[in-house]
């Protein structure tokens, strides 16, 4: 569908974050007994071929080092547990007369391994997590070997293991569940790209630029030079890895974008391999001291994982082809 002429809120980005924002706006609207808010979600790629949502490994964990992350993840776990509830206020994602949602959740704790140099830091982080209500155990190398005999515990000083509300699920199903529910609540959506803005600041170098408000977003249609101006009151930047790039669009006062938003795309490889003699159903979502990680993928001896490269070896994010040599030379030796 083409975008409307106006909307109260324009959400730029139709990944799981963008659709979640749209959904919660409508839920809160109903909670306050106010209706009529027009929310528009704009997504430039309906195939989601480059979207972080569907290219991720779909993990959920409580083991973070910031209280805000832990609190959000604990809420998310509770929300996903009741995902099919059809409350009067639309508090969850169930839609009347629609099939139930199965996000294919696989309960399995994250297992973080720490070297002697990082042991104290991991232990302090676990104390923080416990203070926020997360159920996390600390394991010595001996305890680790007893629970997971296949792990080589050499150079491992301590490990943290999530006891509940951790694992992985299908992010594509969750995205579609948010989209289906938000649409049922009246959220609009369109296929296009926001490339420019019109604000109240006529002169971007004037002091008025600091308090400028967005009046219009220009949504460019696919494979066309046409654009649709959409009058709006609020714009939500949910462009993910391209959130920083969005703030460089035409029409935004430069003062509003200084310093630049520190978000840039990063390319990562995710590999899937077959290992018939690997860990069984009790395999955790393991994160090695090097940052290498893997998890079980199904029950037929398949595994999925990856590892971030050193900062000086960051690959080009504009090309999403996979370097299979990276698996053979960097990841597999560590996993083996």
Automatic annotation (TrEMBL):
Signal sequence, start to end: none
One term under GO cellular component: mitochondrion
Any one Gene Ontology BP term: mitochondrial respiratory chain complex I assembly
UniProtKB keywords: Oxidoreductase
Coiled coil: none
SUPFAM superfamilies: FAD/NAD(P)-binding domain
Gene3D superfamilies: D-Amino Acid Oxidase, subunit A, domain 2, FAD/NAD(P)-binding domain
GO molecular function, one term: oxidoreductase activity
Domain of life: Eukaryota
Domain FAD dependent oxidoreductase: 8-322
Role noted for this protein: Required for the assembly of the mitochondrial membrane respiratory chain NADH dehydrogenase (Complex I). Involved in mid-late stages of complex I assembly.
Protein name: FAD-dependent oxidoreductase domain-containing protein 1
Native source species: Manacus vitellinus
